## 1
Amino acid sequence: MARIGVFICHCGENISATVDCEKVAKVASEFPGVTVSVDYKYMCSDPGQNMVKEAILEHNLTGVVVSACSPRMHEPTFRNACAEAGLNPFLCEMANIREHCSWVHEKSDATTDKAIDIVRTLVEKVKRNEALAPIYVPITKTAVVIGGGVAGIQASLDIADAGHKVVLVEREPSIGGHMSQLSETFPTLDCSQCILTPRMVDVARHPNITLYTYAEIESVDGSIGNFNVKIRLKSKSLDEKLCTGCGACIQKCPVKKIPSEFEQGLGKRTAIYVPFPQAVPNKPVIDRVNCTYYIKGKCKVCEIVCPTKAIRFDQEDSFVEVQAGALLLATGFDVLKTNFFPEYGYGKYEDVIDGLAFERLASASGPTKGEIRRPSDGEIPKKIVFIACAGSRDPAKGIEYCSKICCMYTAKHAMLYKHKVHEGTPYIFYMDIRATGKMYEEFVRRAIEEDEVKYIRGRVSQVYEKNGKLIVRGVDTLLMGQAVEIEADMVVLATAGIASPGSEELAQKLHVSYDKHKFFSEAHPKLKPVETNTAGIYLAGACQSTKDIPETVAAASGAAAKIAGLFSNDLLKRDPLIAVVKKCAPPLYSSCTGCFMCIPVCPYQAIDKEEIKDRSGNIIKTISHINPGLCQGCGTCVAFCKSKSIDILGYNHDQVCAEVEALLNEW
Amino acid sequence: MNNLQQKAQQLLESGNYGLIVGYEKGTSGKARPVFIRKAEHASKLIFDESCDQNIAVYLYRQEIKHNKKKVIVANHHTLKSIVELAAENQVFDGDFMVLAFAENGDIIELNTFEEIEKHVATLYHGLTEAEAAMMKKIEDMSLEDRWAFWENEFSKCIKCYACRASCPMCYCPTCTVEINQPQWISVPSHTLGNLEWHVMRAMHLAGRCVTCGQCGKACPLELPIQLLTYKVALDSKQFFDSVAGTSICADNALAIFKPEDHENFIR
């Protein structure tokens, strides 16, 4: 015989302002099977929880309905309270009369009646609840970090230093990401390479880190604690064990005119190449699109000159599978190319470049050895116009957001230019100056006051070429909208930061959500900034939204701390609200027909086949089996199963049907 | 004796096969299924225009399921159903041989699922002209008229479940309607409950119906219930390019997701 306790919460006035809680409690006390029904101002408070516990002990309750807020809010609170009083926590249910009732309706009898209906459905459900025990699944204490920029590097080192294994996967031939391309960094103007490259070396040397460069994620199965990650190792056409990184092949490669991706096209590279001299690993790959051998079928100069015979022209892509407990997305960002801007010449003017290209011009290791020379003729520009918000904050261009890093790096660019070309004049067209980090505002002031950077508040309508000069036409909104025309030698566009190419495909492979700009979405904008909505998959850095280096590193360490926290337990405790295939007595054994159409339906790859055998080992029947470690209890298979052979524990057919009947039937 | 009968006799006499499922002459010009176990009965077998029943339904029947020496004489509906049953793991490769017919009447032996799948690819998949005309007639009705039409049809249904028994794809040992803990679908026959049953049946056959129309042929009240499953079959084709009975891979439209699926609202 059921003895159900109903506890109606006023939630201060959140519920009682529109729902007559006393009446709900009184009516509920008359429901069949309800032994005790009370209302209280704050059920989640200590005295409120004590009311629940005492009632369980006094009335020997077989089930509890707490009629209050959403289960997402306080279900764990009350389930714990029940457990403390000796009642199985899964015999406690929340009837949500706040979000589903009091908050969305006016005060009226109908609102109270709806609250009563909600309570009644949960009473009928809880009568059919069964005591359940949590599931413990082992955690594989390995993290796969996707992306080897500064975020991936920092997170990998942090996780590895915490004593856990890390597999770092990088798409390019070297780790380092965009940070390795930068010249100096704001607000301190310390050299980017000088602070990054030691970390890159640490990654390569760390005993807990396995580094796969020139590799991409092929597929991901499983779930938190136990992911199975398949990684494609793109062919480098090289036996890495034999290669010593001597560079003889690079020197002799006859194809020398390929625009270097690392140098933003300002420098050239060979077909067999390392992206930059400080690359980690410092071993070359062959770019098969441009290599003469792969185009014409002959050349093989690199193979001839290689002293260790490490070149492998017939090498194919290979795959490794990694078992991992957590995944970290740190795939970074990209910048819009200058050809996105018709008003600035569609990228056809060589001397209109983006910010990343300017970084290479200003970098001591760049194509000009750190001298600011314009790409078209190598002259030192006398006037440079920097245009901030090129694309960003421009709904007409489809990018409403602020790219956040441009104000600062533009100030830095102007400053670096002035430091290197003393007689030069930097102009910056800007909308607002957003310098909100530590020492950032001071940095911008320094640019304006000490380095005499000319800030012009206004937009640039057009850039065109005339007599070898770039004419920049804009407006100065601080001079009542007066038109401004500057004859510049070079123009630098602070183009918007955008999601890294391939982000969408990766998000779909990993089942993580992303926004309309293809940046990955965090689980909560404030309280869960480094988690995704998929348990066990974390985020760091500019793949979430454009971030500067301090923010990226902070996020990476935050995500690493989350992963290390997850790995600090040997077992992961999970609610047992999972799907099970129903079984019954012979000769049927199970109503499951073994059509296995639930297998492709399952988003978590949690379903496999189970053979039912007789005592001599003959197979009687093959039916579906749900792996309790992988099942997330989403219920897709339940809805799909035609013979209704699958149930979700805690939400079985009987319970759901009872709820529906309680709502529909006259009472 | 014709080719088929001779072939059947040889197969049974060889001892490699012990059972032939096929058609024999029935009453009033109709064919009916027959199970031949002895060579001397092979002369009962016929195969002509009248053999339009889908007899794939017998392949997984408990009585003959485990007989690995069986042969089935298959019309094109039966062939498609065998492919769909194979995709759903209800029949197994090598458990039976299929005798199909080329256009000129020659007998084709199909031993493996691969051979069956290849042969089925040469067949016509779609509704006959008469069936398509019936579909069009109903689709052209206004919503109210269509509702009235089906309400009238369902009011006549006696829930004998002949449609279910005749359908090769209705192989669940415990059908949803027989599950009474809880009782999701009402047992007695009344218009709304009958509608519930037929809509459920159509949805369970979404992407699985091979449009053989056997359910409609089996209905003792001659309700055009095959049109319901045809509709979902046509929709699967239109929206997801999925045609049941063409592939032994389980690629049911409702079971899989493809990024190019016709579901813009998801993204």
## 2
Amino acid sequence: MSKAAVLAPGSLASPANMRRSSARVSRRTIILIAYIVFLMLPIYWMVNMSFKTNEEILAGLTLYPHTPTLHNYITIFTDPSWYSGYINSIYYVTLNTVISLLVALPAAYAFSRYRFIGDKHVFFWLLTNKMAPPAVFLLPFFQLYSEVGLFDTHIAVALAHCLFNVPLAVWILEGFMSGVPREIDEMAYIDGYSFPRFFTTVFMPMIRAGIGVTAFFCFMFSWVELLLARTLTSVNAKPIAATMTRTVSASGMDWGLLAAAGVLTILPGALVIWFVRNYIAKGFALGRV
Amino acid sequence: MTVSLEGVTKKVGADLHLHPLSLALQPGTFNVLLGRTLAGKTTLMRLMAGLDAPSSGRVLENGKDVTGVSVRHRDIAIVYQQFINYPAMTVFDNIASPLRRQGKSSADIDAHVRRTADMLRITPYLARLPAELSGGQQQRCAIARALVKGAGLLLLDEPLVNLDYKLREELRAELRDIFADGKTTVVYATTEPQEALILGGAVTVLHEGRLLQTGPTSDVFQSPVTEECASVFSDPPMNVLEAILTNDRVALSDGTSLPLSAHDRNLPAGPCRVGIRANHLTVLRRSDRLVPITGRVELSEISGSETFIHLRHGSTTLIAREDGVHTHPIGSEIQVYADPDRIFVFSTAGALVAAPLGRRGMLRNIA
């Protein structure tokens, strides 16, 4: 951003122009900095808190940790009730991503390549599943999973999250697949590929960006979903977000610990975004750019 | 491979894309499918390949019925109009892929791929991805993959259309030599009459899903069986005028009268239609036999080293060809000359009655 401002037209011209443009540059820079500060402030404050002691947090406003401590992080990594939350979350999120992809890949291929009765209606109906709030399905899921003995298991949450992740994955993948000319499929059959072999060795490498973006979206939506995850679990598969919201002890809130947990919760998302940063726009457009 | 189609049709929904059609291709021959867009060339090729099944009729390969056989088990190769290569594989792997599926040894594959790449002059690019090649090289890669398979039937669906003029000429000349091995039956679809003439072999003329004529290319060009066929196999389209045959002249509807020539003498008198190709309607009067026709210039287009003049003549538009680059002001009146020895005579229904004599001097009087 600031680079664009420096390279603004006229910046190479006469001294008069230079003065004028430098005035403009600084104004732009100030606005941008203010904007970024405004955006980053909550995140900074969380990181800031996570390195403070509870005494310092409660004592008053300090812009940076005066007595920095890693105590909060050490607690999280050593106390099983904390780190198991992360393990549970990562476990069911990964499980969900894998299931969503395995189910959505063949479905998206069918929607992209074949015409069948009602294909457009079914395709649209998939998206409406994504539009319904998860709370609508809360009670049926809870009752059903309790009956069949899936309550408080990782697979329960992973399956429940398929409700909104599978439609999303189908939509994104269909967009990417429709970008591949049908002649490639024919070419492969002419060359002698069987369908499974063609799909795994020729077709999937061609849409790997789409698969990556889809995996990211599934990961993200499953990671941030709290309502279903919290309701369908109690102890064994309790997600980190639930652990965080339940941490109000008799001695009051453990502010520093919660902040550290928050920092660790946004890290996986940030990491995954880094890997798919070039394709995210296309993913948000459901592969249709 | 001998390929025979017996009364095949193709219906898509309620539309008949291909009318009942029978065709036999001899082994090792070069066959051009000529027709304008929507003539059914691609539909016909897909039936031959087995990518689509015909709605009725049978497809035979070497006398064996293969109508329902999947494309995986056919001995065919295809080159599409779009450059179709596997984008995630290198050029080498692209060309090698049909051989790998056939289970050849890697030394064998290597030798095959290199020989074919040499032939198509893409050896320097074997390690690249298709996206890193120019359009012409991408199509060469697709052709190499089709060739390396050694299939009995090779289908080329307008393979040169998406290339620029220069590359097209270059590749077209090479293709003739590459396919001259006589082992593969080649089918080549094109919209351009010029391309069909250059490639030679046999031609099958299609128009709106109907087979109009099939035969050796020069025969079809010199005596198209119908007016429709003549206009498809003629670029620019043939000029056709209403006329009346008498026992010594052909009187065109505008009053111009042409003397009879060897090929249209002794025809029954009566109304007919006369076809004149643009190159037999010239600005230069080459001999006294040529008959002048006057018209007003509507458009003059320059194509390479020749000029096509569109003339308003009565209620019709005539197209005349002139050697070299000329400009004629629009609206000016000019005279062009028709060659009475080179006219086609069609019946009022459009069937060929008499065609000009071929270069070999054979009389082609199909009256």
